[in-house]
Amino acid sequence: MAFDSLSAFLDMGGYAKYVWPAWGLTLCALIGFAVWARMERRQLIRQLERRRRREARSA
Amino acid sequence: MWTFIHKLGSPKWCYSLCGRLQPGFWIAALLLIAVGSVWSLAYSPPDYQMGNSYRIIYVHVPSAILAQSVFVSMAIASAVFLIWKIKIADMAATVMAPFGAAMTFLGLFSGSLWGVPTWGTWWTWDARLTAMLIQLFLYIGVIALRGAYGRNDQGAKAVAVLTLVGVVNIPIIKYSVVWWNTLHQPATFTLTSRPAMPESMWMPLLIMVLGFYCFFTALTLYRLRNEIIRRESRTRWVQALAE
């Protein structure tokens, strides 16, 4: 362990305002991409279902 | 071998292959990034000059490496598309672009944040930084060009050509730290020599880089399936997915 306490860890030796935004935005971006891809898939499947129902009605 | 390549060009077969491959890559990405994050934030020793500010390296280097690897992957896919007219290759290039652009932006963003305490400035027209900014514009150009054409074959060809032209910038980024001796330090990892830092520092970095590669692979497989659904939505097998 490189830090003695949780507050020392959060303080990052005085560099908290540089380290945490860099880490935060990067990890948020990764999570964001995964969530986005999942929503994209759901939306596409919903569209397929909608078209299917429409075509079933007109047939 | 040829039948394998031939099958890979078939959207239906490719869809199921991506589906079978992706869980492993998601799990690997999650594990590597989780272990790498805890190790690099809490356990790796502070740098003797930069103190704890150097921990930015563990997100900066993976995003910057991916920014380049993603573009090279897009260029390979574009070449395959132009030479053999394989549609899947064009779909792959399409889905990779936004992630590559984000990685380029994140590399610049984390670099800026690191620059303030270490260089005393968040931006300078250093060769590496400038080449990376051009890379971001290339990504935006590729995405915008595709958006402008909508979904037609002429547009796909134009995007592929732009990607192949843009790949010229990759060696410029790579060798910028060697050709121009400005602020940015040389590469951390090379194939020919050991890193100039102790193992307790470079090991978590290597884990993070591998984690980012797995994430990119998983995301690409996942979004390639989405793109196949989108473009092949008129086919019977895709419509059967909604059942």
TrEMBL record, chain A:
InterPro entries in the cross-refs: Haem_export_protD_CcmD (IPR007078), Heme_exporter_D (IPR052075)
Keyword Membrane in record: yes
Keyword Magnesium: no
Annotated family: Belongs to the CcmD/CycX/HelD family.
Domain of life: Bacteria
Topology class, membrane: Single-pass membrane protein
Transmembrane intervals: 20-37
Protein name: Heme exporter protein D
Main subcellular location: membrane
Keyword set, alphabetical order: Cell inner membrane, Cell membrane, Cytochrome c-type biogenesis, Membrane, Transmembrane, Transmembrane helix, Transport
Role according to the record: Required for the export of heme to the periplasm for the biogenesis of c-type cytochromes.
Compartmental location: Cell inner membrane
Automatic annotation (TrEMBL), chain B:
Organism, scientific name: Salinicola rhizosphaerae
InterPro entries attached to this UniProt entry: Cyt_c_assembly, Cyt_c_biogenesis_CcmC, Cyt_c_biogenesis_CcsA/CcmC
Name of this chain's protein: Heme exporter protein C
Keywords: Cell inner membrane, Cell membrane, Cytochrome c-type biogenesis, Membrane, Transmembrane, Transmembrane helix, Transport
UniProt xrefs under Pfam families: Cytochrom_C_asm
Cited function: Required for the export of heme to the periplasm for the biogenesis of c-type cytochromes.
Annotated PANTHER family: CYTOCHROME B_B6 PROTEIN-RELATED, HEME EXPORTER PROTEIN C
Domain Cytochrome c assembly protein, first and last residues per copy: 25-184
Cellular localization per UniProt: Cell inner membrane; Membrane
Topology with respect to the bilayer: Multi-pass membrane protein
Main location, first listed in the record: membrane
Transmembrane regions: 21-43, 63-84, 91-109, 129-149, 161-181, 201-224
NCBIfam families: ccmC
Gene: ccmC
Coiled coil regions, renumbered to chain: none
Family: Belongs to the CcmC/CycZ/HelC family.
